[in-house]
Amino acid sequence: MKRMILLLLLGSATMTNAQIVNIPDANFKAYLVGNALINTNADAEIQVSEANGFAGSIYCHSLSILNFTGIEAFILLDSLTCSGNSLSTIDLSSNTSLRYLYCVGNSWTSLDVSNNAALTYLNCAANSLTTLDVSNNTLLTSLVFTGNSLSAIDITNNSSLLTLGCSNNLLSSIDVSNNLLLRYLICRNNSLSIFDLSNHSDLFWFDADDNNFADLNIANANNINFLTFSITGNPNLSCIEVDDVAYSTTNWLGIDATTSFSTNCNGASIDELGSITVNVFPNPTSSSLTIESSENIESVAIYNTLGQLVQQEFTTYFSVENLPTGIYMIHAETEIGIIRSRFVKE
Fold first, then answer.
1. Residue 4: inside a domain, yes or no?
2. Which of 51, 90, 259, 280 could be cross-linked to 255 through a Cys-Cys bond (beta carbons 3.0 to 4.6 Å apart)?
3. pLDDT digits (tens, 9 = 90+) for 68-95
4. Is pLDDT above 90 for 49?
């Protein structure tokens, strides 16, 4: 009888131990045990039943957590913030209810969210990611992976995206043709060269400084509602196609001195005009301006930022001394077409 009782007690103890979530990281465990919404019986452990039944948010920002083992028991977890730790891996394959993931500033080289189809928000900025597969995350409305090492990403399945933040990566291209609901597009400091955003009628925030753009169409019938437009540091971008030249010239000052606006860049950019080359100097200038071109220039029209014609010339060397300080657009007419450029009057 005593032997049977002992066996029953041992079996009971084994069952009890089996019901405890294994959480080897002391900092992670301390957070979970200290969270009364999770540790409902207020003991020193997290039972599997407590983890399995928790459908709220885990917020463990900057707690020096090295190991996230135990997170897999939170199968109903809705939101996870684990930024500013020292995590190199994380297994989220069991957290299929997860909708919000903020994991900025860890040490991940890869992140597997293929089982997290419920995700609507993902911010994994400031890691060391070289790959990121979001093809299964079709409900995403916000995706930010700024400050990683991605050279490519496929977001064609993410048609619900409203926000895309991909600055400071190694991207040479990104296909946004299926992301027609985009409102915020921030892609600074990559090697992007072309965007056609003419079908993105909800877009009102665009920041693409420091890329290699040579072609940009942002005539989306919503230009007047833009809150931010900036594309400096793109010396190969001579023409941006917009809704209204006068409006963009007046309100969108975040462009290079060699860039101008047009409603039809196909007939305006230097590259599209074949062999034409142009050089405007000095730029900026305080007195005179010279325009050199491989094609004969018949006339030069200068417009201010309001789109008003302020000076007309029939020579390629002339004075601009009487013009007020500011930014001006040059339309140089040739037999082949109009060359558009830009200069700054000091």
1. no
2. 259
3. 999 999 999 999 999 999 888 899 999 9
4. yes
Report whether the peptide linkage leading into residue 24 is cis, meaning its omega lies within 30 degrees of zero. no
Query: Taking 80 as the threshold, does the pLDDT of residue 271 lie above it?
Result: no
Report if residue 89 sits inside a domain. Answer: no
**pLDDT above 70 (res 207):** yes
Cα–Cα dist 73/29, whole Å = 13
Among left, alpha and beta (phi > 0; psi -120 to 50; other), residue 199 is alpha
Q: Is the pLDDT of residue 294 over 90?
A: no
Distance between CA atoms of residues 254 and 230, nearest Å: 4
CATH code, 335: 2.60.40
Determine the Cα–Cα distance for residues 38 and 56; give it in Å rounded to an integer.
9
The contacts of residue 14 (CB under 8 Å, 6+ apart) are none
Domain that holds residue 313: 280-345
Taking only the tens place, the pLDDT of each residue in 210-243 is 999 988 999 999 999 999 999 999 988 989 999 9
Q: Is residue 51 part of a domain?
A: no
Share of the chain above pLDDT 90, in %: 69
**Number of alpha carbons in the 13 Å side-chain half-sphere of residue 326:** 14
Q: How many structural domains compose the chain?
A: 1
Domain-embedded: residue 150: no
Average pLDDT over residues 192-197: 92
- What pLDDT is recorded for position 276? 59
- Report the alpha-carbon distance of residue 330 to residue 148 in Å, rounded: 39
